[in-house]
Amino acid sequence: MYNGLLHMSKIMKKILIAFSIAIFITSCSSYKKTLKKQTDPILSSTFYQNQFTGLLVFDPENRDTLYAYQSKKYFTPASNTKIFTLFASLQLLPDKVPTLKYWQQGKKLYVQGTGDPAALHPYFKDSTALNFLKRHANIELDLNNLEGEKLGQGWAWDDYDYYYQPEMTPMPLYGNVVSISRTKVIPEFFKGNIVRNWHRRNRDLEKNTFYVAPSRRDTVEIPYRTDSVLTKKLLEAALNKNISLGKPAYTPKKETLYGIPTDSLYVRMMHESDNFIAEQLLILASSTLSDTLSGKKARDYVLENYLQDLRQAPRWVDGSGLSRYNLFTPEAMVNVLDKLYQSMARKRLFAIFPENGVSGTLKGWDYDGGVPKLYAKSGSLSNNYCLSGYLITRSGKTLIFSFMNNHYRQPTSEVKKRMQQVLRQVAETY
């Protein structure tokens, strides 16, 4: 009798499980049909006729694709590239920034840059390296370990004097920009290089002469032209002591000096879409692989060791997304976002991404009633706008999406309006 009841109980349990699965499959199928019915007419409208658009919406809990439209095709991602840079940094960097490498021989301290972008940065104002170097009288800098150009492959050459395109260096100082206000110049080293006069450019192409209109009231940041001698002079001015440049023939095992939390760099990169930090993060990440600093080596290493399962391998040429040579698919973007979602604490992950209506580049993306809630990275170049990240639906589900728009001629505000409509429908439906 008991065995018979036990047998019946097992059968009932199997029936209930099968019934639940059937309801779930039917429910998912219903969601997909509704999303398709709502979204297809928008993406096939005349508005999208002469542009290129891709969208993927994925449920990371049920491992289910809810909607896909040209999601396997390649797009210019703009600053969505920073999602891959974030992923690479999280794989290779420790909790605190490796701010420089050093070793001591006798009374001389040898120092090598790691690419740390925070040293004396206008926002971070990190003095970790400076305070360490102040304790040593005899310092020799090795600034020969950066492999690659100062400006990225495919960057717009005529943006050299804009704040968002500083040069890449092995030991950045002050964010590699000069901050100029009506009363102050940081670093003061460049005070004599400021011309208070209107000019069509902010800086001369090949030299550090900076132009600021006398009527300008705000603080302007202008990238300065870098080289090893200038880095030495800036550091000497900050330390108030002489240092030397060199490349020792023999280098023993180095020690590493650690600075601010790396999460502070990630937040700044993602919230403000800071190109300088993005590029230097890849250089910084490469410092954990070898003494040779190379953003390319970091990218290649991450693709080969952590992202070898991507079904559409990206063309990934920089850390910031400034280059139009970058090519990523919405599917690859969602794949990396999913890896982050599965491996990180939700609170930490969402804090790194801009929140719509609250922070960073999504502060102006708000919805009545607060649905959907987005934690996402935008990316914009002329005629291109992309948005990828996490969407919280009205029912509380977390979805991952990548919505890419390339080569449109309409105002970006109109592109965003339709994106918001689609994402709102996803949030209300699922």
TrEMBL record:
One of its GO terms (biological process) is peptidoglycan metabolic process. One of its GO terms (molecular function) is serine-type D-Ala-D-Ala carboxypeptidase activity. Its EC number is 3.4.16.4. It holds the Pfam family Peptidase_S13. Keywords: Carboxypeptidase, Hydrolase, Protease. Belongs to the peptidase S13 family. This is D-alanyl-D-alanine carboxypeptidase, family S13. The lineage of its organism: Bacteria, Pseudomonadati, Bacteroidota, Flavobacteriia, Flavobacteriales. The gene is dacB.
